[in-house]
Amino acid sequence: MAQAGMHAMVGMVTRKFANKRQWLLLGAILGSFIPDMDNFGVAVATVMKLPTAGIHRTLTHSVFFVLAVVAIFYLIGQVKKDVRWGNLGVGLGLGILLHILLDIFLWFNGVALFWPFPLWVNIWANTTAPEWFMKFMDPAEFLLFGGYLWALSNWSNRYKTDGDFAGKLRMWMILEFALFVIFTPLVYMMSKGFATIFGAIYLFSIMMAFIVTIRMRKTIEAAEV
Ligand SMILES: [Zn+2]
């Protein structure tokens, strides 16, 4: 798992390239979340006691996945005769690609960049991060989800959009920061069972952030420059 909130905030930066193409920025932010949703597959395999290797950082972290998403949304746009779906697809592709690049450069694991071809790109193969740091990466997920929601609330204040959602947004943001405070000591104290509890709340958080992003699409559209 690699800091979904940070990926989303990087997606927000692409607003400079959105160039008033409706739904492109929305796609880029949503696309930043999508690759790590393969953790749902890991969770299902874990519950069913199946092997989990080869699920995370494979299909959804592949350049072919990017091309497929762009192509599918292009076709939807053609069928619906609505250019916004094509824009959404380009945005999703951009967000997914940015996510993959960030995973390669900022993370300490490999990415199956050309999946289904088993070629793992790992520039960190000779580096081992300290254990305390790798552990800290788990609660940091919640910190960065909170940071992402905070950035969204800034946009919503600036553009005076989605005011009716401000209260709920604040609630989700506070919850994520609280989870960070709770899980930071837990990751060092709990020897058993941490991964299950953390994993469940992480999956909940990534879905929440994804749905909040769609709910706040007016804000994101307003932020396109
Ligand atoms: Zn990833």
Give the SSE map.
Layout: H1 4-13, H2 15-18, H3 24-33, H4 39-47, H5 63-80, H6 83-106, H7 131-159, H8 166-189, H9 194-215, H10 217-223
The structure holds zinc ion (ZN).
Tags for this model:
225 residues, mainly alpha, 10 helices, globular, binds zinc ion
Q: Tally the helices: what do you get?
A: 10
Low-confidence stretches: none
**Quick one: how many beta strands?**
0
Major sheet characteristics: none
The pLDDT mean sits at: 93
Structural class of the helix and strand makeup? mainly alpha
Shape label = globular
**Topology pattern, helix = H, strand = E:** HHHHHHHHHH
Sheet-strand content, in percent, reads under 5%
Distance between the termini: 31 Å
Q: What is the number of domains?
A: 1
What Rg, in angstroms, do the CA atoms define? 18 Å
Helix content: 55-70%
Distinct small molecules bound, one entry per kind: zinc ion
Structure description:
This protein is an all-alpha fold. It has one domain (4-223). It has 10 helices and no strands. The radius of gyration is 18 Å and the shape is globular. The two termini are 31 Å apart. The relative contact order is 0.17. The mean pLDDT is 93. Zinc ion binds at residues 2, 35-36, 57, 61, 99, 103.
Give a concise summary.
With 225 residues, this protein is mainly α. The chain has helices spanning 4-13, 15-18, 24-33, 39-47, 63-80, 83-106, 131-159, 166-189, 194-215, 217-223. Zinc ion is lined by residues 2, 35-36, 57, 61, 99, 103.
